[in-house]
Design a protein that fits this description.
Shape: flat
Strand content: over 45%
Distance between the termini: 63 Å
Largest sheet: 5 strands, antiparallel
Oligomer: single chain
Helix content: 10-25%
Number of strands: 8
Number of helices: 1
C-alpha cells in the first residue's frame, strides 16, 4: 500500500515540475495575411515565438479539417472526432534558434466551408507543435473559419 501512495506522490511532484517548466516556454503567435479564408485561396501564414532563447528541436504546423459528431449513448454524451483532411504547412527538424518564419497555405477548391450544427461540426484548425530541448513541448491549436466561395 505504501508503494502505491509513493508512486502517486512521485507522479504529483512530476506533474507540478512539468507544469512549472511550461510557464517558461515560448509563446507561439500566428497571423494570416488575408481574411476571410475561402476554398481555393492561397494565404501566407506568419509565425513567431516570444519570451525564450531556448534551443528549438523542431517546429511543425499542420492545417487540418476535423469532423466532430456528438451523440448520446444512454445518459452519456460522447463526441467522436475524425481528421478528414490534413496538409503540412511548415516543418523544421533539427536544432535551431529561428524565432519567426512564414509559409504558404493553399486551400483546395473542393473543400467545404466551416459548419456548426448542434450535433455535427466541420472544424478547420492549425495545429502547432514546438519541440524544445530539455523542456516540455509547446502544443497549440488555433481554430479557423473557412467561408463559402
Amino acid at each position: 500500500m505504501t508503494i502505491i501512495f509513493g508512486l502517486i506522490g512521485l507522479l504529483t511532484i512530476y506533474g507540478v515540475i512539468y507544469s512549472f517548466l511550461q510557464l517558461f516556454n515560448p509563446q507561439l503567435k500566428l497571423e494570416i495575411d488575408n481574411h476571410p479564408l475561402k476554398p481555393g485561396g492561397e494565404y501566407k501564414i506568419y509565425w513567431s515565438l516570444d519570451r525564450s532563447n531556448r534551443v528549438i528541436e523542431g517546429i511543425e504546423i499542420t492545417f487540418q479539417l476535423e469532423e466532430q459528431a456528438t451523440y448520446r449513448r444512454g445518459t452519456d454524451t460522447k463526441t467522436d472526432k475524425k481528421v478528414i483532411y490534413q496538409q503540412n504547412i511548415y516543418s523544421q527538424l533539427g536544432k535551431s534558434r529561428e524565432r519567426h518564419g512564414e509559409s504558404l497555405l493553399k486551400l483546395p477548391a473542393n473543400l467545404i466551408h466551416s459548419f456548426n450544427a448542434p450535433n455535427n461540426k466541420l472544424v478547420y484548425q492549425l495545429k502547432c507543435i514546438v519541440q524544445i530541448a530539455s523542456f516540455p513541448d509547446v502544443q497549440e491549436t488555433f481554430e479557423l473559419v473557412v467561408s463559402p466561395k
